[in-house]
Structure formats: C-alpha cells, structure tokens
Design goal:
- It is a single chain.
- The protein is of the alpha+beta class.
- About 30% of the residues lie in helices and about 30% in strands.
- The longest helix has 16 residues.
- The radius of gyration is 27 Å and the shape is elongated.
- It holds the Pfam family DUF6465.
Length: about 90
C-alpha cells in the first residue's frame, strides 16, 4: 500500500472515533430511606420537604435553603434543623 492510502485509511478511522456516541437514557434511581423507631416510621424525603416548608413559612430566602442541617430525635418525635447563617427551628414528626 502506498502512504497516501494509509493516510486516508487512518483519517477515516480517526473520524469515525470522533463521531458523537448516542447517549443512552439512564433510568432515574429511586431510593426510599425509612427511619424506624419503636412503633413509628419516618420517610427521609418527607422530613426534608416538611423542614423546607417550615423554613419558607418562617421567611427564609432560597439562598438560605442551600445549606440545611437536620437532626432527627425520634424519641422526642421532633426534627431539629439549622439553615442560613444562624437560623434554626424544629418540626413535630
């Protein structure tokens, strides 16, 4: 083979490699995280949404909701939380 044919063949191979690969649609993963204590059962996503709702009812901005820390105390049936710079609260479970 001549060098010219080898170059053309090499170019076709590299062009084929550079072509975009069709993305496969990955199925979204669903995880349910339950907390069980004595005769009670709490769903983690439900607690988070209730905490966010409580923060918004107390006048929190969307920027303050970027960092929320939640402390679950099932023996008291409460979830304590902090958000923003120095704001805190709790919800009854």
């Amino acid at each position: 083979m001549s060098k010219r044919l080898d170059k053309k063949k090499l170019k076709r191979q590299t062009t084929a490699i550079e072509s975009p690969i069709a993305e496969t649609s990955a199925s979204k993963e669903t995880i349910n995280f339950f907390i069980q204590y004595q005769d009670q059962e709490y769903l983690e996503t439900e607690i988070i949404s209730r905490v966010k709702e409580s923060c918004l009812l107390n006048g929190a901005s969307s920027d303050e909701l970027n960092t929320i820390s939640i402390y679950l105390k099932p023996e008291d049936k409460k979830a304590y939380f902090t958000y923003g710079e120095d704001k805190s609260g709790f919800i009854e479970l």
